[in-house]
Specification:
Residues 6-177 form the Bacterial bifunctional deaminase-reductase C-terminal domain. By secondary structure, the chain is of the alpha/beta class. It has helices at residues 43-55, 63-72, 82-90, 115-125, 135-143, 205-211; strands at residues 4-12, 58-62, 93-96, 108-110, 128-132, 149-155, 174-177, 182-183, 189-196. A hairpin with a 5-residue loop joins strand 8 (182-183) and strand 9. The relative contact order is 0.22.
């Protein structure tokens, strides 16, 4: 078995992915727009996110997102969010951190320093590994191409500040669109990309015109 690592992010048009769910989720840098996704969330997004979560069999998280999830989801296994909470509580959870996070949430393991080797082992152990949020950690996965799918829910707002999926200095990369875009009622667009080898090519339109 070779499992897949899927990154799931909510972003703005300017690809800010910081703190979509709650004002106090991540105030790094004095970020003033925490909870920006809430006014634009709709049933299409909810149903697709719910379906994706129901199919995962492992969570792979950065330290900050793990701390947020561990403080919230074990206490929300009933009610509206119950299905998500129960799934997160049930599956194994893996934390990428250089520090010493408290691993109080059941089924949690901290990854070792050799990330590539650790992820190779996770692929042999699980079929559907999802990385949710964890923007800082995601940038490492993207730079080293240690993922199989990048799923972006892109919302029709611009914030102009905050942690971006691809910040200045990101590693140049080629990607391919894995499925047709899906559009929600409130204008969010789901884009699903996979990594491709090489770096972006360049060209000259004048040369293309002559060749045509």
């Amino acid at each position: 078995m070779t499992g897949r690592i899927q990154i799931d992010l909510f972003t703005t048009l300017d690809l800010v992915a910081q703190a979509p769910g709650n004002p106090d989720e991540d105030r790094d840098g004095g970020f003033p727009f925490g909870g920006w996704q809430a006014p634009l969330f709709d049933d299409v997004v909810g149903q697709n996110v719910g379906a994706a979560i129901s199919g995962l069999d492992a969570l792979l998280l950065g330290r900050k997102t793990y701390d947020i999830f561990a403080a919230y989801w074990p206490n929300h296994t009933d009610g509206v969010d119950g299905a998500i909470g129960r799934q997160f509580d049930r599956v194994p959870k893996y934390v990428a951190s250089r520090g010493t996070p408290a691993l109080d949430w059941q089924g949690t393991t901290q990854l070792g320093p050799d990330l590539a080797a650790e992820l190779s082992e996770l692929r042999e152990r699980h079929e559907n590994i999802h990385v949710i949020g964890s923007v800082d950690f995601v940038q490492t996965l993207l730079a080293d191409r240690l993922y199989d799918e990048l799923g972006l829910w892109v919302y029709p707002i611009v914030l102009g500040q905050g942690k971006k999926v691809f910040p200045d200095g990101a590693v140049p990369a080629n990607l391919e669109l894995l499925a047709p875009p899906l559009v929600s009622a409130n204008g969010a667009v789901l884009l699903r990309y996979g990594p491709q080898p090489g770096v972006p090519a360049t060209g000259d339109f004048d040369t293309l015109d002559r060749e045509a």
